[in-house]
Amino acid sequence: MQLIDLQAQYRRIKEEVDAGIHRVLDHGKYVMGPEVETLEQRLADYAGIPHCIALASGTDALLVAMMALDIGPGDEVITTPFTFIATGEMIGLLGAKPVFVDIDADTYNLDAELIEAKITDRTKAIVPVSLFGQMADMQRINEIGAAHGIPVIEDAAQSFGATFNGQRSCGASELAATSFFPAKPLGCYGDGGAAFTSDAALAEKMRQLRNHGQTAPYHHPMLGINGRLDTMQAAVLLAKLDVFDDEIARRGRVAARYDDMLPSALNKPHIDARCTSVYAQYTVQVDDRDRVRAVLNEAGIPNAVYYPVPLNRQPALYSDVPIPVSEAAAERVLSIPMHPYLSESDQDRVVEALTSALKN
User: Fold this and answer.
1) Cα–Cα separations (whole angstroms), residue 328 to 3, 27, 44, 97
2) Confidence tier at 321 by pLDDT (50, 70, 90)
3) Rg (the chain; Cα; Å)
4) Domain ranges of the chain
């Protein structure tokens, strides 16, 4: 059993993936080949936003989005501490200060009602993270951003394909960034990512930034990065996009079955009534997590913890401001197998082992 079974997915789309890779091998345009532009158009159309810029990773997508807003030393960026290091890391690398706002206890996403208290005259952006496959409260966060003239960047590394009030993730804010790391709901066979925007000027600036700040061959009016997505990865993603909606539906059925079968007392994922989730993870909360994990491991049930240490307690981003909900969640969250190809028999094994662990 796999926590995320990429081999099962590949068996389904092997012919399409192999054909796409061989097309790239045949034309030999390994960097910024035609598949990259095709992918950008399809992703933009899917998200319902005018501009998509393919990048070498989700981390680069966040970085380029922030660079496009000229975020730098002396600036503050409001975000959540309950996320992967990349969110805060990119803020810090640009010399800005991450200002951590606690999460909603039910959704694990940024608590929108706590944002305004953290806004200062140095606040340059708000970066909500759409965690575990569900979007943050983008309506309220966008309202707060608009009221204060502060742009919103959705960190959608885990939520591409999800919706909030009918708007798709990466299409519900001025800027967004997603990841195509292999374990993501839409993942490539290496690192990859994309940035999105409704602003044509920001889109053009991000295209330049991902290519060393270049506006024409050997003309660099700004400092950028080498953040281009490999053509080979674009070919893989194009094949995966063809089955993506079906995979989202399958994830939903797996999640619904977990919801029905796992004990009612267990803290299971809560999906906001305005949202749909792509269930990047199926995350529960348990007491005595180390013991529960030991029981699962003994039964051969893969499991993981996202995230055991919130960013405000990471040495590189340490803050002595308490973030109680995030810190409590970090001690209790546990993710169990979740992917579109999880069989009912394997899911039964997961439920049986987890239920047994909770009783002991």
Assistant:
1) 24, 52, 37, 24
2) confident
3) 20
4) 6-238, 243-359
pLDDT at site 170: 98
Beta bridge partners of residue 282, listed in sequence order: 336
Could you tell me if 111 and 82 are in contact, meaning their C-beta atoms sit under 8 angstroms apart?
no
pLDDT per position as a tens digit, 117-136: 999 999 999 999 999 999 99
How much is the pLDDT for 177?
98
Residue 7 has, within 13 A of its CA and on its CB side, a CA count of: 3
Helices (H), 190-320: 200-209, 231-261, 289-298
Q: Which CATH architecture has domain 243-359?
A: Alpha-Beta Complex (3.90)
Q: Rounded to the nearest 5°, which phi and psi values hold at 193?
A: -170, 180
Share of the chain above pLDDT 90, in %: 98
Using the Cα atoms of residue 179, residue 89, residue 201 and residue 147 in order, give the sign of their dihedral: positive
Residues 6+ apart with CB under 8 A from 109: 80, 103, 128, 129, 130, 131, 134, 135, 136, 137
The token pair at 338 is: 């979740």
- CB environment 134-164: b (16+ within 10 A), e (fewer): bbbbbeebbebbeeeebbbbbbbbbbbbbbb
Report helix, strand and coil shares of the chain as percent, to nearest 5.
45, 15, 40
* Residue 257 token pair: 């079955």
Q: What is the mean pLDDT of residues 43-50?
A: 98
- Mean pLDDT for the chain overall: 97
Q: Has domain 6-238 been given CATH number 3.40.50.970? A: no
Closest to 20 in 3D by CA, of 234, 252, 167, 271: 234
Contact 280, 184 (CB under 8 A): yes
Yes or no: say if 327 and 313 are a contact pair by the CB < 8 Å rule.
yes
